[in-house]
Design a protein that fits this description.
This protein has 412 residues and is of the alpha+beta class. It has helices at residues 5-8, 21-49, 64-82, 93-103, 109-132, 137-184, 195-203, 254-261, 278-293, 309-315, 318-328, 337-353, 357-364, 368-382, 389-404; strands spanning 211-218, 234-236, 243-247, 266-269, 273-274, 302-304. Strands 1, 2, 3, 4, 5 and 6 form a six-stranded mixed sheet that branches. Strand 2 and strand 3 form a beta hairpin.
Length: 412
């Protein structure tokens, strides 16, 4: 048979509420009188179990922990006496405990263990008082449940304080880290570049490496979460294109670790340089990112500049290379775009292979006779200059740059 809806809303009967009021008042009176001594017993046991726990004094020179324990006991007992709703945790002290653990760099595990110890010791004393005033066992069992519910409130306050401290510590560390990176990436250093870095690095626990590589990242989205790079990697997300400093970038496993951490991101990591030359690595990373944005380097991943040296060297000084191309490739100006391109591709293949018509033909995928015809035209256009080693070097430089820009291919 289904119970009536109204019956389901009836709260469970409270054994504690059934205790006669005179017994409750007597229990509370004794517990409040013994609260200072109980607090000292708990404090003494805590100090014995956790001798390294710091002792913080209040303005009266009394340990704040002792004051908090005593106040927590008193509030709990007063709640039992009034029997009004859930016990309210006294504000301030336990929030400060959690905050202190956060600032001290400790975990909340020991603090929660301390709280549980306090509840166990308090329960023993309350059980003794309950026997003295003849509180029925069911009511005392209910008191235990209330005590652990009260403990949850104490822990909750401490967790909030701990989180507040952790947030502030993280913010301060980011500020110090950002300043360290600014100094590290400065173009010019006054005196020994490591002098200003040593102290700042020590403040965030960063060991100065011999070599670094600097990365520049492209956000996959405006609100993208920072990549989970190793703690030793300095990361500044405040830039439009975030920057990072990778210590000892060639250390075993470091490239693979970075590759996994930066999955979903794009950008470039500059070449490894001495610590004092970090700005140079940054310049190469920025140059690589610019080429990526123009479609001249592969996009959609984080590249290592050392794997794209040719493109970075040949595509960087655009004005100089364009001027050199105009001078070196002037003989092709009247050949027409299609024929001129084929002659340029043949010339580059010949310069790279240093072989005859069969080798060049194999590179281009055309008939050797076609190559011989083109090579005769090339010699007619450039004359004896084609035999000059310096001119051949300039031609190969220019033609390689043209190929990197997509203006030449290797097909005939």
């Amino acid at each position: 048979m289904t119970p009536h809806p109204a019956a389901a809303t009836v709260p469970p009967r409270s054994a504690w509420h059934d205790v006669p009021r005179f017994q409750v008042r007597r229990f509370a009176s004794i517990a409040l009188a013994e609260a200072p001594g109980l607090a000292e017993d708990i404090m003494r046991e805590i100090r014995r179990e956790y001798p390294h726990l710091p002792v913080v004094l209040d303005e009266n020179g009394e340990p704040m922990a002792l004051v908090g324990i005593r106040r927590a006991i008193e509030v709990f007992v007063q709640h039992l006496e009034r029997s009004e709703g859930r016990p309210t945790v006294p504000p301030g002290v336990f929030h400060d405990f959690g905050r202190g653990e956060g600032y001290g760099g400790r975990s909340l595990d020991s603090l929660q263990a301390i709280y549980r110890m306090g509840v166990r010791l308090a329960w023993r004393r309350f059980a003794d008082i309950g026997q003295r005033v003849e509180i029925p066992p069911p009511a005392m069992y209910e008191l235990v449940d209330a005590g652990y519910e009260y403990l949850d409130g104490l822990v909750d306050q401490s967790v909030r304080g701990y989180a507040e401290a952790a947030a502030r510590e993280a913010g301060e560390r980011l500020r110090l880290q950002r300043r360290l990176m600014e100094l590290l990436l400065a173009e010019r250093h006054l005196g020994d570049p490591t002098e200003g870095l040593t102290e700042r690095a020590a403040r965030i626990g960063w060991s100065l490496p011999e070599k670094v590589a600097v990365g520049v990242l492209l956000r996959p989205a405006r609100e993208a979460v920072a990549p989970a790079v190793p703690q030793a990697v300095l990361l500044d997300m405040e830039y439009e294109q975030p920057r990072m400093v990778v210590p000892e970038p060639t250390a075993a496993g470091r490239p693979e670790l970075l590759h996994r951490a930066l999955a979903g991101w794009a950008g470039a990591i500059g070449p490894p340089v001495a610590l004092a030359d970090a700005a140079k690595s940054l310049r190469w990373a920025e140059a690589a990112v610019r080429l990526m944005e123009r479609g001249l380097l592969p996009a959609g991943e984080v590249l290592f500049c050392t794997e794209h040296t040719e493109a970075l060297v040949l595509l960087q000084p655009e004005e100089l290379l364009d001027d050199l191309a105009l001078r070196c490739l002037a003989p092709l100006a009247h050949c027409g775009p299609t024929h001129g391109r084929r002659l340029a591709e043949t010339l580059l293949a010949w310069l790279e292979t240093r072989g005859g018509a069969p080798e060049v033909a194999a590179r281009l995928g055309v008939h050797p006779q076609t190559v011989r015809y083109r090579l005769r035209q090339i010699r007619e256009l450039w004359g004896d200059e084609i035999d000059d080693s310096d001119r051949r070097f300039e031609l190969e430089l220019v033609l390689r740059a043209q190929r990197l820009r997509g203006r030449l291919g290797e097909a005939g």
